[in-house]
Amino acid sequence: MRKIALEEHFTTDAMKYYSLPGAAMFDPAQWETSLKRLLDFTDVRLPQMDEYGIDVEVLSLLSPGVQVEKDTATAVRNAAVSNDFLAEVVAKHPTRFSGFASLALQDPDAAVAELDRAVTQLGLRGALINGHTHGEYLDADKYLPLWERAEALGVPLYLHPANSYDTWHNLGGHEELIGPMWSWGVETATHALRIVFSGVFDRFPGATLVLGHMGEGLPSMLWRLDSRWAFLDHRGRKLGKERPSDYIRENIMITTSGVCAPAPLLGSLLALGADRIMFSTDYPMEGNAEAVHFIDNAPISELDRAKICHLNAERLLGL
Ligand code: MN
């Protein structure tokens, strides 16, 4: 079955510096292997895609990318450099690669202009945002023009995990909980809920946010969100729709990146529906073999499998 994978990463010699905070979580030999694969497109990546039957990878610069750059002008310049590089890779293999742009959210106006350029001139299919930018989240008023442009261009924003702004007290003494195993998911789900409860999707009902890692836990929380939102009388906030879950179902799509288990997939299918879930690997941080074996053998209908493997991505990204 045709497969399009949406959370697949690369880096470049010029940009790998930005990934050093994340690299510190790896054993040095592991990081060396990952870095080689991040820098590679044709030696290992494409042959693996052929071997496992991944037709298209939608590529994005590895987290946290230019958003951690302290100098705003440098961040703006490097986002453009990274996007030009990505567009060249896609141009060389247009049937195998597509891409999500990097944006320097340190400068919201520049980020809007770069999203526009990336989509209309470079042919990229949206942007991948790596968590907060120096402590600011996508629900801030200054990012409303970015949502407006994404909606107008008809492209999604993929919210990818990154380290939280500070280390939470409750993680003290538990380094193992910091990062992809736990804290990134909580951080990213919270960021997504900030966007929902700020009314971003009331203002831009055609906007789409994509979450990886089977929705970062949110699909299992819909009933509780709705129930306690009503019980707490909304704490003074106002949303256009009655239930928070309405936005999660209508404005958020999720991918299977880094989650290869039937239970959360079936739960997400029941919570969100088969039109809202898309296949991904999270290469090279996760393996293609396991991700493909999982989705090929998941206990779901062939129509749902086709939606998850390629139909939903084709619709969302215009592929
Ligand atoms: Mn990832």
Structural notes for this entry:
- Helix 4 runs parallel beside helix 5 and helix 5 packs parallel to helix 6 (144-153).
- The chain is 45% helix and 10% strand.
- It has 319 residues and is α/β, with parallel strands linked by helices.
- It starts with a strand and ends with a helix.
- The protein is globular, with a radius of gyration of 18 Å.
- The chain has helices at residues 20-23, 28-39, 45-52, 72-92, 108-120, 144-153, 183-197, 200-203, 222-231, 244-251, 262-272, 288-297, 302-317, and strands at residues 4-10, 56-61, 97-99, 127-130, 157-160, 209-211, 252-255, 277-278.
- It has a single domain, classed as TIM Barrel, CATH 3.20.20.
- The strands form two sheets. A five-stranded parallel β-sheet has the order 4-5-6-7-8. A three-stranded parallel β-sheet has the order 1-2-3.
- Manganese (II) ion binds next to strand 1.
Topology (elements, then pairings):
Blueprint: E1 4-10, H1 20-23, H2 28-39, H3 45-52, E2 56-61, H4 72-92, E3 97-99, H5 108-120, E4 127-130, H6 144-153, E5 157-160, H7 183-197, H8 200-203, E6 209-211, H9 222-231, H10 244-251, E7 252-255, H11 262-272, E8 277-278, H12 288-297, H13 302-317
Helix pairs in contact: 4-5, 5-6
Bound molecules: manganese (II) ion (MN).
The gist of it:
The chain has 319 residues and is of the alpha/beta class. The chain has 13 helices and 8 strands. Helix 5 (108-120) packs parallel to helix 6 (144-153).
- How many separate domains? 1
Can you tell me the CATH architecture?
A: Alpha-Beta Barrel
Widest sheet: strand ordering? 4-5-6-7-8
| Shape field | globular
Bound molecules: manganese (II) ion
- State the CATH superfamily name: Metal-dependent hydrolases
Task: Look at the structure and give the mean pLDDT.
Answer: 96
Estimated radius of gyration:
18 Å
Q: What is the string of SSEs from the N terminus onward?
A: EHHHEHEHEHEHHEHHEHEHH
What's the end-to-end separation, in Å? 16 Å
CATH topology: TIM Barrel
Class of secondary structure makeup: alpha/beta
Strand content: 5-15%
What does the main sheet amount to?
5 strands, parallel
How many helices? The count is 13
CATH top level label: Alpha Beta
